[in-house]
Amino acid sequence: MEVFLLQIFNGLSISSILLLVALGLAITFGLMKVINMAHGELIMIGAYSTYLTQNLFHDYLPKSMFDWYFVLAVPVSFVIAFLFGLILEMSLIRFLYGRPLDSLLATWGVGLVLQQLARSIFGAPNVAVTSPAWLNGGLKIMDGTLLPYKRIFIIALVIACLVAMYFYIYRSHEGRRMRAVMQNRDMASCLGVSTRRVDAMTFAIGSGIAGIAGCALTLLGPIGPSLGTYYIVDAFMVVVLGGVGKLVGTVLGATGIGMFNTLFEYWTNASLGKVLVFVCIVAFLQWKPMGLVAMRSRSLD
Amino acid sequence: MKKRMFYQFSVLLVAVTIVLAGCGANDNKTASTNGETDKATNTANSGASTEGEIKVGILHSQSGTMAISEVSVIDAEMMAIDEINAAGGVLGKKIVPVLEDGASDWPTFAEKARKLISEDKVATVFGGWTSASRKAMKPVFEELNGLLWYPVQYEGLESSPNIFYTGATTNQQIVPSVSWLLENRGKKFYLLGSDYVFPRTANLVIKEQLKAEGGELVGEEYTPLGHTDYSTLISKIKQAKPDVVYNTLNGDSNVAFFKQLKDAGITAKDLTTLSVSVAEEEIRGIGVDVLEGHLAAWNYYQTTDTPANKTFVENYKKKFGDERVTADPIEAGYTAVYLWAAAVEKAGSVEVDKVKEAAKELEWDAPEGKVKIDGATQHIYKTVRIGEVQADGQFKELWNSGEAVKPDPYLKGYEWAASIQPTE
Questions:
Q1: What is the DSSP string of B269-282?
Q2: Which of chain A's residues have a Cβ under 8 Å away from the Cβ of B259?
Q3: Pairing state of beta strands B369-373 and B148-150?
Q4: What is the pLDDT of residue A98?
């Protein structure tokens, strides 16, 4: 019983991590159709931003303040990844809209450059981020069932990101412009929307969310130059399975993959579990090539 | 129509990404392209005359996944060469290193080894880390009658006439540590490893040993290289209730495993874990707060108390910075250079066959203590040490074998190991 409960929670936790990793991509790939292979490296930038924030707190602020570095690290990671995304969009992606193959190769190259850059600046070995004391330990619901605060925190963080994104995309003026441009670029442009600015902002926001994902991942995993490569496949998987272009789809995709992965891994082992999940996804996409939630639109293409 | 193509393309893309990521995890082909930048530092000496000079090759990964570990070994080997040169060189000649980048890509290792032997005509090569890179280079050295010094602990069951192994084989690390754990920490073992050659071979040995020495296997799990979520695995460990988790995970997975183990409320007090791939260098990347109290088995720690080690650590820090740490493979690389130099002095020549002959039973005071080359297997006698991670990120030695253990790569001295066959 307790193992069953714990596994449900683990499944939820993995889903939340997958969702956080994929949310940024749901914007850049899902909405903008840019195959952004550097997404993983934007996550890595978020992780290193957290590392830097931690070091600054450690060096310049009194010890009692140290535990609060993480609260600041979340927005810092967002801002730094946001800026990287903005620069990337303005200097490269902008010229590659509508050319998926070129953007695939270019962003792949950017990813490699960023990895090597991290290796030169921070060194090849992993760096350590000490998680704040208030995230250590966990919630004990019964004997032998301890829900780690870190995983609960990540679930809360992802919900917060989702809510913020929902309000931004569906309830704000910028969001309306964004949806207008993504749905019908020419028409939006005719009506006076500056598509260039909207593109740049959208891409940068997607990148910023990748930065938040990187920040959260420092709690659970390694922080090194190749960090991004571990998550990029999962991120694309979630977005493609969920259905490109729909936020709800991304949420469902992440939950599905996370839950099934945990289940299969528990029944078999880690390697086989992953294979089974991929088999299921491939089979599902054969049946519904558009993914879980297909976007209906009137645009002619 | 365009839309449909886009979707088909996305599915194709995911497939391609999986394949690429697979390569990245296993041998990081992608990173090999990064290696180009490092070439500038290489082969600067190829044109130099051999009068008064002896060329040696250094072949490790300077780029790709394995660069994390191998770069420090290069530093140690270069330091040994500098020290020997400062003391007058070998046979009155200066040693000139020729650096090549194996780029974490096994075929590249073989190709670069061939280049070093046939084109640069180096006297010997120091290099390799993963077993896969060694297995790739082995036929080249055997074909061209070259000489390779391999500095890392490995899974045993090998002994090439053209390779000297200065890292531990199984009976100098894994076998004694399992015996120690059975005696001191309990009988129920859970084997956890990354899914590739070394952990699987090592666990083959451990399982036989457990059967023979009265241990009990309560679980065995492998995770893909680069696996980052251990929550389910930790649930399984909790259910199996082992006394000991024997950890052969490699690389970044160690970070995820130990962080998540701590989050699940399991500390070193509740569960003994012993790792064979976590050394001082790795501790820094995982975080001391997470690792404190966990165990590792090696032949050398930075804290190992010998006079030779004091000077070694001091010089290493002086040369590369105070924040750097030494570790087992770093020491083994350093030792390899000195052993080769001593053998050359004794042989009075750099010819491979004469050096091999002279190296037999050669002794040297290494930082880890006195080591001796075993003529029959070309491995070295090493002292086994079990250490516990302390709050300062260093190891405290809990146990050592007292004397240097004779290498036995095929485990011929153990009856229970009779059924274990070399895997080629």
A1: TTSEEEESS--HHH
A2: 131, 219-221
A3: unpaired
A4: 81
**pLDDT number for residue A126:** 85
Any idea what the Cα angle at residue B202 is, between residues B198 and B206, rounded to 5°?
A: 165
Residue type present at position A100: P
Across the interface, whether the CB atoms of A301 and B1 are under 8 A apart is answered yes
pLDDT digits (tens, 9 = 90+) for A86-109: 999 999 999 998 888 899 999 999
The per-type count for chain B, helices as H runs and strands as E runs, is 14, 15
Name the token pair of A215.
Answer: 């920040």
- Length of chain B as a residue count: 424
DSSP code string of A43-102: HHHHHHHHHHHHHHHHHHS-GGGGGGHHHHHHHHHHHHHHHHHHHHHHHTGGGGTT-HHH
- Give how far B411 is from chain A: nearest CA, Å: 30
Residue pair B98/B117 in contact (Cβ under 8 Å)? The answer is: no
Q: Could you say which of B7, B17, B262 has the minimum Cβ distance to residue A233?
A: B17
Candidates A6, A100, A127; nearest CB to B285: A127
DSSP state, residue B386:
E
Asked if this assembly's ipTM is beyond 0.90, the reply is no
In chain B, which residues have their Cβ closer than 8 Å to the Cβ of A284? none
Residues of chain B with confidence (pLDDT) below 70: 1-51, 422-424
Q: Which of B278, B280, B270, B234 is nearest to B252 (CA)?
A: B278
Question: How close B256 gets to chain A, by Cα (Å)?
Answer: 4
Strands B53-60 and A145-148: unpaired
Parallel, antiparallel or unpaired: strands B163-165 and B148-150:
parallel
pTM of the complete model beyond 0.80: yes
Please report the pLDDT score of residue B111 as a whole number: 96
The percentage of residues in chain A with a pLDDT greater than 90, rounded to a whole number, is 65
Residues A178-201, mean pLDDT to the nearest whole number? 90
B255 touches chain A (CB under 8 A): yes
Instruction: Find, in chain A, the residue whose alpha carbon is nearest to that of B286.
Output: A128
Interatomic CA distance for residues B263 and B395, integer angstroms: 23
Report CB contact under 8 Å: A100, B195: no
Q: Say if the Cβ atoms of A221 and B259 lie within 8 Å.
A: yes
